[in-house]
Write a structure and sequence with these properties.
alpha+beta; four-stranded antiparallel beta sheet; single chain; Outer membrane efflux proteins (OEP); elongated; 10 helices; two-stranded parallel ribbon
C-alpha cells in the first residue's frame, strides 16, 4: 500500500507539473524577428533650422567666427541630433536581429508547496484518499535554447547591418547639411551687415544733401521743391535703414537658432565675406567626386542593399529551421535530498502551407527594392544637377561681382559730379537724387552678388560632399 501511495503521488505530480515545467523550460521555438524592409525613415531637412540651446545668454554680444558657428551647429543642431538618435535605433535593430541567432540562456529556482485532488484527474482507488499532500519540492534548473539553422534570421541580420550602416552615413550627410545651413546663415548675416553699412552711408549722404538744399533755400538760391525733394530722399533712405537693420536682427536670430545659441544671445561675426574666384573646375570631375564622397548617396546604396537582403530573408522563410532546447537541474523535497534531471529536445520545422504569407512578404520586399533603386537613380541625377547648377551660379555670381564693382565706381563718380553741379547752381538736385539712388542700387547689387558668390560656394561644397573640408577649400580658392 505504501508503494501504491508513492506511485500515485508521482503520477499526479507529473500530470500537474508538466504544464508548469514546459512553460518554464520547454517553451516552443521562438519566432525570429523580421527586420522591416523599408529601412530607416530619416527626418526632413526642416529640422536643421532648429537646435537644442546650450549655455546661458550674456548681456554683451559674443564674437563668432564661421568655424565656431559650424562647430556649434554640429554639436547642437536638432536635425543632426535626431539623426544620431535614429542611428542608435538602427544599431539596436541590428542587435535585435543578432539576438535571434544567439542562444538564450536562463536559470531559476522554484519552490513548490502543493496539494492534489486525484479525482480531478480521474484517479480513484478504493480505500485510498482522493486528496494527496500537501507535499513540498524544490527545482533548481538551467535552460538553453538556440536555432541551429535559420536562414531567415541570418538574412535579417545582414539587412539590419546595412540599415545601421545607412544610418551612420545619414549622420555624416547630416553634418554636411548643418555646414550648408550654418554657412549660408552666416553669409546672410554678413550680407545684412554690409547692407546696413551701405544704407547708413546713403542716409549720411542724403542728410548732407538735405542740409545743403535747406541752406540754399533759406538763402534764396534754390526753390523750395529742391529742399522737399531732398527731404523725401532722406526719409526714404532712413526707411531702408530701418528695414535693413530689422533683416539683420532676424537673420541673427535664425542663425542663433540653427547653432544652439541661448535665447536672446547676440553675437558679432568676426569673419568677413571673402571673394576668391574659382577657376578650372570641371563638372565631370566634380560629379565623380560627389558620387564618391556624398554620404547620402552611399546611404541610399546601403538602404538598397538592406532591401535586397530583406527580399532574401523573405525567400528563406520557405527553408527548414532547426531548433534545440535543453535544460538540466536538480529536483527533490530539499536541496540535500534531490536528484539531477535533464531534457534535450531537437526539432526541425518545414513550412508546408502558410496561406500566402511568404509570397506577400516577397512581393512587399520586391516593391521596396524597386523603390530604393528608383530613389538611388534619382539621387544620382540630383547630385549631377546640384553640381552643375552650383557651378553655373558660381560663374554667374563672379561675373556679377565684376560688373557690380565697376558700376559702383561709375555711380560714385556720377554722384560726385551731380553734387558739384548742384553746388554750382548749374542744375537742381534731381540729378543728385537720381545719382544717389543709382549708387545705392549699385552698392546693393555688389553686396548681393558677393553673397550669391559665397552662397554658390556653399552649395557646391554640399553638392560634392564632405562639406566641412570642401567649403574651406572653396572659400580659400583651392581647387
Amino acid at each position: 500500500m505504501k508503494l501504491l501511495r508513492i506511485v500515485v503521488a508521482i503520477t499526479a505530480f507529473a500530470v500537474a507539473g508538466s504544464g508548469q515545467a514546459a512553460a518554464q523550460y520547454g517553451a516552443p521555438a521562438p519566432q525570429a524577428p523580421r527586420i522591416p524592409a523599408g529601412g530607416l525613415q530619416f527626418s526632413s531637412s526642416s529640422q536643421f533650422s532648429g537646435s537644442v540651446p546650450a549655455g546661458q545668454a550674456t548681456a554683451t554680444p559674443i564674437p563668432l567666427s564661421l568655424q565656431e558657428a559650424i562647430d556649434r551647429g554640429i554639436k547642437n543642431n536638432l536635425g543632426l541630433l535626431v539623426r544620431g538618435a535614429l542611428g542608435s535605433m538602427a544599431r539596436a535593430d541590428r542587435l535585435r536581429a543578432l539576438s535571434a541567432l544567439l542562444p538564450a540562456l536562463n536559470a531559476g529556482v522554484t519552490e513548490t508547496e502543493t496539494q492534489i485532488d486525484l479525482a480531478v484527474y480521474g484517479i480513484s482507488v478504493p480505500g485510498f484518499p482522493s486528496v494527496v499532500g500537501p507535499f513540498h519540492y524544490i527545482d533548481a534548473r538551467a535552460a538553453a535554447s538556440a536555432y541551429l539553422l535559420n536562414f531567415t534570421s541570418l538574412k535579417n541580420l545582414r539587412s539590419a547591418a546595412e540599415s545601421a550602416r545607412a544610418a551612420e552615413l545619414s549622420i555624416q550627410d547630416g553634418r554636411d547639411l548643418v555646414v550648408q545651413a550654418v554657412a549660408a546663415g552666416y553669409f546672410a548675416v554678413l550680407a545684412d551687415i554690409g547692407r546696413v553699412a551701405a544704407t547708413r552711408t546713403q542716409v549720411d549722404t542724403a542728410q548732407a544733401l538735405y542740409t545743403a538744399a535747406h541752406d540754399r533755400h533759406v538763402a534764396g538760391v534754390s526753390a523750395a521743391i529742391d529742399e522737399l525733394r531732398a527731404q523725401v530722399e532722406l526719409k526714404a533712405q532712413q526707411e531702408r535703414l530701418v528695414a535693413a537693420q530689422n533683416a539683420l536682427a532676424r537673420d541673427k536670430l535664425t542663425l542663433g537658432r540653427a547653432i544652439g545659441l541661448p535665447a536672446g544671445q547676440d553675437f558679432n561675426p568676426t569673419d568677413e565675406a571673402p571673394y576668391v574666384p574659382l577657376e578650372g573646375l570641371g563638372a565631370e570631375d566634380l560629379v565623380k567626386r560627389a558620387l564618391e564622397n556624398r554620404a547620402d548617396y552611399r546611404s541610399a546604396g546601403a538602404q538598397l542593399r538592406a532591401a535586397e537582403m530583406a527580399r532574401k530573408a523573405a525567400d528563406a522563410e520557405r527553408y527548414p529551421t532547426a531548433y534545440l532546447d535543453a535544460n538540466y537541474g536538480v529536483i527533490g523535497p530539499s536541496p540535500n535530498n534531490s536528484h539531477g534531471t535533464f531534457s534535450v529536445i531537437g526539432s526541425v520545422n518545414i513550412n508546408l502551407f502558410d496561406g500566402g504569407r511568404i509570397r506577400a512578404d516577397q512581393q512587399a520586399a520586391s516593391a521596396e527594392i524597386e523603390r530604393r533603386r528608383s530613389e538611388l537613380a534619382d539621387l544620382r541625377g540630383r547630385i549631377d544637377y546640384e553640381v552643375r547648377t552650383s557651378l553655373l551660379d558660381l560663374s554667374t555670381a563672379a561675373d556679377q561681382v565684376a560688373l557690380a564693382r565697376s558700376n559702383v565706381d561709375l555711380a560714385a563718380q556720377t554722384l560726385d559730379q551731380a553734387r558739384d553741379r548742384f553746388a554750382s547752381g548749374v542744375a537742381d538736385n534731381i540729378e543728385v537724387v537720381q545719382a544717389q539712388e543709382a549708387l545705392a542700387g549699385a552698392n546693393q547689387d555688389l553686396i548681393n552678388s558677393l553673397f550669391a558668390h559665397n552662397l554658390a560656394k556653399v552649395s557646391l561644397a554640399r553638392a560634392v560632399g564632405g562639406a566641412e573640408t570642401s567649403l574651406k577649400q572653396f572659400l580659400g580658392g583651392n581647387r
